[in-house]
Design a protein that fits this description.
CATH class of the largest domain in chain A: Mainly Alpha
CATH topology of the largest domain in chain A: Multidrug-efflux Transporter Regulator, Chain: A, Domain 2
Shape of chain A: elongated
CATH architecture of the largest domain in chain A: Orthogonal Bundle
Number of strands of chain A: 3
Oligomer: homodimer
Largest sheet of chain A: 3 strands, antiparallel
Distance between the termini of chain A: 41 Å
Chain lengths: 155, 155
DNA sequence: CTCGGACATAAAGTCGACTTGAGGTCAAGG
DNA sequence: CCTTGACCTCAAGTCGACTTTATGTCCGAG
């Protein structure tokens, strides 16, 4: 099993060394250590990183991604079927995101005619009749498009 | 011109008082002051807030929203046509977001068959061939779906 | 005159996904 | 022996959009 330095992994994956250290700390990837304490990654880390990237693009948080990765078998190397299984559920998520955006756009079309922008009635300023009471943090994207926290019971 | 307290504006708009103070500080809304220093908002602030909300849902940052609001005429009250003009450009943005998500979903469909997730070739882990070198911060959504910084020269 | 409630300010905290910086270690090359 | 470069750790900083907390002020009612 050919081992890679953090610099090599970074060069081949495009993931910064600092991010790789962070991912290891978060349990997304694992590495052995040399006598001197330097990380050595197995080549399989590249596929894991591809998965992480893909999942991020679909909108998953690192917490969700870690949970998904933890369902991979530990004893044998994961197969293409394993990876395909993990990414199958993403389609629904993407469909929902697309539907939400489409709804927003259609609301926009109907709003442009009247310029109403009513807080109560306009589909643009009030999509899904959301009162918006959630924790702090950036919220530039519609709640409909933000990932559902893994602890939530909402499907 | 009937004036509203911050509590009244908050109740009618659903925007928290702390957020209203923040918006005033950021130049998104303006308020006069009573002798005691309390804010008094004109009723027109409700429409402005509706605009802010709608723009946020489309994916604009507060900086971009402020820039848009600054194009409103100062001397006369904005008309429905003014608001419609501002929101007209949003359609293209939404269309682009929808297109990006759809492309991602189609890439997913082709990837699920093979389970490849190659960093180089897979449309999922590498949508748009992006090398991803931008500032810090949360990046859970594809760069394609993130708003373009207003300082950028990309139209 | 005192109390409660609504308001004020300023500074610090929150969230996620990292990056940056300070300071230290290790192996190879000149 | 000294430097260079790649690596290490740990703590703190970054971004956006707010919220939270601490502390203080104003006003009307009892």
């Amino acid at each position: 099993m050919q081992l890679l330095t953090i610099g090599q992994v970074s060069a081949r994956s495009g993931v910064a060394p600092s991010a790789l250290r962070y991912y290891e700390q978060q349990g997304l990837v694992t590495a052995t250590r040399t006598g001197g304490g330097a990380r050595r990654f197995p080549r399989s880390v590249l596929r894991r990183l591809a998965f992480v990237r893909a999942a991020q693009n679909v909108g998953l948080s690192l917490t969700e991604i870690r949970a998904a990765l933890n369902t991979l078998p530990g004893e044998r190397p994961p197969t293409a079927a394993d990876w395909a299984r993990l990414s199958r559920g993403w389609r629904d998520r993407l469909d929902a995101q697309i539907a939400a955006l489409t709804q927003l756009r259609d609301g926009l079309d109907s709003c442009i005619g009247c310029g109403c922008l009513s807080l109560d009635r306009c589909a643009l300023s009030n999509p899904g009749d959301v009162a918006s009471r959630e924790g702090a943090g950036a919220r530039w994207l519609s709640p409909l498009l933000r990932r559902v926290p893994p602890t939530s019971n909402a499907g």
